[in-house]
Amino acid sequence: MPLALAALVLLGVGLGLALLWIGELEGFAAGGIFFLHVPVALTAYALLVWGAWKALRLLWTRDERYDLESYTGIHVGLIFALLTLVTGSIWARAEWGVWWDWRDRQLVTFLILFLFYSAYFMLRYSIEPGAARARIPAVYALFGVVLIPVSFLAVRLADQFLHRTPLIRGGRPDIEGQVLAVFGVCFAGALSLAAAMYAIELAGKRLDARLQEAR
Amino acid sequence: MIAARGLSKRYGTKRVFEGLDLDVPAGGFVLVTGPNGSGKTTLLRLVAGLAAPTAGELEVAADRGRIGFLAHEPLVYRELSALQNLDLYGRLYHVPERRERIGMLLERFGLWESRREPVASFSRGMQQRLALCRALLHGPDLLLLDEPFNALDGAGAALLDGELAALAGRTFLVATHDPVRLRPLATATLALA
Amino acid sequence: MTYLRDAAALARKDLLLELRGKETVPAMVLFVVAVFVAFRFALPQEQEQAAGGLLWVAIVLTALLGLVRAFVPEREQRVLDALVLAPCDRSAIWLGKALSVLAFLLVAEAAALPLFAAFFEPVDAATVGAVLLADVGLCAVGALLAAMAVAGRAREVLLPLLFLPLAVPVVIGGVGATVTDDPARYLGFLALYDAIFAILAWATFEYVVTE
Lengths: 215, 193, 211
Known about the structure:
The complex is a heterotrimer of chains A (215), B (193) and C (211).
Chain A lengths: L1 H21 L2 H8 L1 H28 L3 H32 L8 H22 L4 H32 L14 H38 L1
Helix pairs in contact in A: 1-2, 1-7, 2-4, 3-4, 3-6, 3-7, 4-5, 4-6, 4-7, 5-6
Chain B lengths: L1 E10 L2 E11 L4 E5 L6 H9 L6 E6 L6 E4 L11 H11 L5 H11 L15 H13 L5 E5 L7 H13 L4 E5 L3 H4 L5 E4 L2
Parallel strand pairs in B: 3-7, 3-8, 5-6, 6-7
Antiparallel strand pairs in B: 1-2, 1-4
Helix pairs in contact in B: 2-3
Chain C lengths: L1 H20 L2 H19 L8 H18 L3 H5 L2 H7 L4 H30 L5 H25 L5 H25 L3 H27 L2
């Protein structure tokens, strides 16, 4: 699949450049993981918003087609959310020596969202096949997309009483042209990877559905 | 009153029926017959608006306030009394002179004496009679009845017979596996495979 | 407005059911007291200040207890069909349910807050305000989620999973109002949460109960 190939190439080039630029592996883990963690996080957000948009279209038009699109978007989004948590954890380990840092707002927000969207799948499969199996998760997806800014704001507010010391990220590269370029490549790579996974999974699910119907 | 073309309903991969055509004119009395699982209940639910068709067109010329629905279950709160249940539905359907109407129906269906007892203490036949009160409470133009004679004893069945006769002129779609009883009233029959 | 009267009729029905059955509210009160007792032993001596935060965990869990029972009578006897068939706006079903759960929660808290003050530390006005705001948000969201959970299997297990992530911002708002010197911004946040999610729940409830 050309898209998957493009994704791998872009990611490879992007990460390779980051490595080259930073020089050693340790530095990479501390600062360079930024090039992986942030694009992955942004891509996760994009996928979840995509899933919510498709959910809205489903509710508006009743076109069943949107159900699989919404579901797949959220599924790949959840995978990327998990990747965000993992890369965030690696970053925390490299920088602070701990496997989890409650002061990282992005990370904590993703934890909340991860729990929320995991429940999406439990909800979906607890409902018998039929129109409700598409509609109810679609409404839930809308709640999710609203939860994204609300939980981010909440976590931010929590900082005031949870931690006296705000999180300062050491080792993050200063914003320069080079950094931006590498970041851009990695971001494009992450997005292409997401798009490839989305397309593959959606095609697979559509095929499944058609086979089921033919039976 | 009801017009359906090519109506289909499926739940996931399970097909209930396909390509159904139906025409019920105002004042018509249509029986829906067929073995268990043939989709009689599903058809009634579609007409009531409780389910949406998977394919095809369905037009029902009565809005929710003008439809009376009798399901397999009585659709009442078992822990509340007959009076409390009908009072709730009376409020939701904005029935004018609610108390009088409820009293009249309870009396007509022989439930007046037990009106304050929890429905859980009712026999199945009494629950069915209460369900009929619920369906008729707001004086609907279109009546969708799913096996209305279920669980009714001789007295209850006679009450229902009288009621159906009294409601002549309204539109009926009745699912039944015992069409013989209702044939005299029916203007048409739809047999589901 | 008939909309409000419809919602009131439905809430009234839930209150009547509770008066007959007397199951939910006593359970909620006992539960919250039991949670307090468990807290007492969960807090080592120096950390008694943490009690303020734990109050909020107790509230969320007690709300959850009330919500788990929320649509059970409708689903068990399929009465929900009859409610959906009624000519009223479907969101009135949500509003009626949210109001009745809110009423139960307030009764439970009327018992719980004085007890908390006796067991742990005094409860100030900001906390009470936060509790009221939080209750509205929890019940608004919870009533819709309860309707979702009841549409499938394993509903008692599913509702906590659906509810708790959405309850986290409420806990944050509540704890902030209780322990910090600047409760206003947390109360404001809770009000924002309430407005956003109540509107969303009101607008989408129809899609949860119809096909």
